[in-house]
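thread: overnight batch results

M.L. [08:02]
morning all. the overnight job finished for the chain we discussed friday. pasting input first so we're all looking at the same thing
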Amino acid sequence: APGLHDAGVGLPAAAAFAVKEVRSVAKHPGPISGRGQGGKRPEGRGTGMGQRVRIGVVAPSSFIDPAVPDEVTAFAKARYGDRVELVFDPQCFARHGHFAGTDAQRAEGVLRIANDPGIDAVWFARGGYGSCRPAEAILAGLGEAARRKTWMGFSDGALFEVGFEGGEGPLEGF
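M.L. [08:03]
and the structure it wrote out:
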């Protein structure tokens, strides 16, 4: 649709914003963690420049268009080669009204990616107020692996910053 594409990149606006987030994480020279507990990664996982970074994508609010992952993944592959891998949780495409699934589905999707020790960063795919509904369940279910990750995305994730160490969580870009 007219006006939805970024003139410089030729991608939908959400995908163009996503590109900026991927650049930020992919160029990070050290551990990807922001202000997490000790900033430590499991051995061999995204610990330095040139090493592979796995970014798990979740949608705690609005669902994403099924075309966006292909566009963003293609851009990331062209720009970063094998240094960045985007992992889209199936929950991103679920629908319950305008949300990406029920509150329970959205919480499960976030926790699946957040608690996976093989994922280096959690990326909230879209904005929207819907993340406040499953927030309590998500915060209660976060394990140690989740606390070592960088969290990035849109305003829907800002409320999670409060849940991480009283506002000192490892959130980027909120």
